[in-house]
Amino acid sequence: MDTIRRELLGQIAKLTAGAALIPLSSVASAGINDQPARREGDPSKRYGMLVDLRACIGCQACTVSCHIENEAPLGSFRTIVSQYEVEHEETGDIATFMLPRLCNHCDNPPCVPVCPVQATFQREDGIVVVNNEACVGCAYCVQACPYDARFINEYTQTADKCTFCAHRLDVGLLPACVESCVGGARIIGDMKDSDSQISRMLEEHYDDIMILKPEMGTAPHVFYLGMDERFMSRPDAKPAIWDVRDQQGEEIGYEFGSH
Amino acid sequence: MNSAVIEVLTPRYGIAWYPWAVQYFFMIAISYSALLLTIPGLLMGKRNYQALAKVALLVTVSCTLVGPVALLADLHQPLRFWHFYANLTPWSWMWLGSLLLPLYLVCVVAYAWLAWRPAMQEQARGDGWIARLSGWIVLGNWHAPRWMLVLCGLGALVMSFGIMLYTGAEVAIVKARPLWHTHWLPVMFVFTGLVAAAGLVILVNRLMTGNDEEVNGQSLKVIFGSMVLAGLVAALWLAEGITGFSPSVEAAFASLQGNPEWRAVAVYGLLVGVALTLAAAWMLRRNGNVAKAWLAGLLAVHIGWTFRWMVLMEVQTVAKNTAGYYQYVLDMGSSGLLGILGTFGLWLAALLIIDILVPWKRDLQVGTH
C-alpha cells in the first residue's frame, strides 16, 4: 500500500513537473530560427523517397495525377518533372535529362522555423505539412524553401506543398505520383525499416545517391539515383521557354501570364 | 565533358511577396530612422535640433501608422492576423516582429502624444470642432511631467532597435536566396532608411514649414554620413563575394552572372549613390545651396524606396532552382500599382489629418537644457 502510494505520488509529481517544464523547455531549447519540436504522425517511421532517374521517361503522369489528387490551381504544381536537353558540344549528340521535383521533406526544413504561426510543421514521420486553417499566407515559407517546392494556393490563399500524399499514406495507400509512375521511378517508404525497398536501394546504391542543393544544409529526404551532378543545384542552362518574346521584348506565348 | 543545356520544361514560380512588402519595409525604415532624428531635439532637449525634431516627429508618426497597414495587406489571409498572437512562436523572426511592432507603435504614439500635448491643450481652449476634438485627445488638463515623455521616447527607441533587427534578420536569414543571405543586409536597410527618412524630412520641411535651413542642413549631414556608410557596406559586401570570403555572397554574384539588366541596376545604383553623396556635400559647403536641399531629398527618398524594391521584388525574379529569371510584370490592381499608390495615399491622409488636428509646428514639450 505504502509503495503504491509512493509510486502514485511520484507519478503525479513527475506529471506535474513535466507538464510545467515541457512547454518551457521546448521554448528555451529552440533559439531563433531553430527547428521546433515535431508533432503528429507516426514516430516509428521516417518517410523518404527515392527517385530512380534511370526509370523516368518524363511523361509527367506524376505531375498530372498529383494535380488531380491534390487539386492544385492551374499553373501551380506540387510536383513537376523538369526536362532538359543536353547537347554534347564536340560530338553534337543530344540527350534528354528528366528531373522530377517535389518537396524534399528535409530533416532540417528551412520552411518550418520561419512560420510565424506554427501552421507549417514537421510530423514525427518526417513529412512536412501545412495546416491551411492556421496559415496566414505570409509566404515566408515560400521564400525560405530553396527548392521552390511551395507556393501560395490562389484558391485558399495559403501555403501549399507536396505532403507525400500524407492523407493516402495514413490509410495505407501510395502517393498519387508513385501510384501513377509508369516506370516505377518513384519509390516511397519507411527509412527506419531496414527491410523496406527504399532502405535496401539506398544501401545498395549508396555511392551513387545524390540529393538536391546539398550546400543548403537541409538534409533532403528525396534521393536521386542516376543523377548528374550538374543538375544538383541551379543548372547552368538556357531557359528556353522564357525566351519566347516579341520584337518589343515582351514575353509571348505563355498561357499562365499572371504573376 | 562540355555540354550545352537547354531547360525545355519547367513551371513558372510566382512572386510570393507583393509590393506591399516594399511599402512596409520602406515605411517602417523611415519610421525608425525619423525617430532617431527626433532624439537630439525632443528626447535630449537640444535647442538647435528642435526644428528638426518637429518635422521628424511628424514623419515618424505618419509612417508608423501606415507601415503596419501595408504589412497586413501583404498577408494573403489578413483577417487571420490574430493567429500571430494565438500561437507563441518565439523561434520565428516574423513572429518576434509581430510582437515588437504593436509595442513600437504604442510607444511612438505615446511619445508623440506627450510631445504635442501642451500645444494641443492650448488649442483646446479655443472654439470650434478642432478645439473640442483636441480637448478629447489630450485627456484632460493635467500636466504631464517630462519624465513621461522621456520614458516613452526611450521605450520607442529600444523598440525601434528591435524593429531594425527583426526586419533585417527576417530577410537576411533566408539562405535560399543568396542575394538576401548576408549580415550586411540589415545594416544596409538601416543606412538606406536613414537616407530616405532624412530625405522625407527635407521634403516635408520644404512643403509644410517654409524650408527651414537648419533642418535642411542637419538632414543633409545625415544623408551624407549614411550614404558614405552605405557605400562602405556595399564595398564590403562586394569584397566578400569577390574574395569568396562569404560563399553565400559568392553564390549571389553567380546567380546574376551575365545578366545585363542586373548589371544596369548595379551601374544605376552606383551613379545615383555617388550623385546623392556629392550633391549633399556640395549643398553643405555653401549656405546658399541648402535651399536646394529638396532635390537631394527627392533623390534620397528614391534611393531608399528603390533599394527595397530591388531587394524584395526583383530578387524574387532570380530563379532558385531553375535556369534563368522570371519576368515580373507589375499588376495594376491592389497587389501591384494600386497597393503602392494606396499606401502613399494613406500616408498622405495620415499626414494631413495630423496636420489639421495637431499644431505640430508649435513648441514641443521639451525641458530647458
What this model shows, in words?
Chain A: It comes from Marinobacter fuscus. Chain A: GO terms for molecular function: 4 iron, 4 sulfur cluster binding; metal ion binding. Chain A: This is Tetrathionate reductase subunit B. Chain A: Residues 1-30 form the signal peptide. Chain A: Keywords: 4Fe-4S, Iron, Iron-sulfur, Metal-binding, Signal. The complex is a heterodimer of chains A (259) and B (369). Chain A is α+β, with helices and mostly antiparallel strands and 259 residues long. Chain A folds into two domains: 1-30; 47-232, Alpha-Beta Plaits. Chain A is built from seven helices and ten strands. Chain A has helices at 2-29, 61-70, 111-114, 140-144, 166-169, 176-180, 197-204, and strands spanning 47-52, 80-88, 94-101, 120-122, 128-130, 150-153, 158-161, 186-190, 222-225, 238-239. In chain A, the strands form four sheets. In chain A, strands 8-1-9 form a three-stranded mixed β-sheet, with helices on one face. In chain A, strands 2-3 form a two-stranded antiparallel sheet. The model of chain A is unreliable at 18-28 and 254-259 (pLDDT under 50). Chain B has 369 residues and is an all-alpha fold. Chain B has two domains: 16-173 and 329-361, no CATH class; 186-321. Chain B contains twelve helices and one strand. Chain B has helices at residues 19-43, 50-74, 83-86, 93-124, 129-137, 146-172, 184-208, 213-243, 247-256, 260-285, 293-313, 337-357; one strand at 3-9. The termini of chain B are far apart. The model of chain B has no long low-confidence stretch (mean pLDDT 91). Classes of the chains: A alpha+beta (259), B mainly alpha (369). At the A-B interface, β2, β3, α4 and β10 of A face β1, α3, α4 and α9 of B. β10 of chain A pairs parallel with β1 (3-9) of chain B, so a sheet runs across the interface.
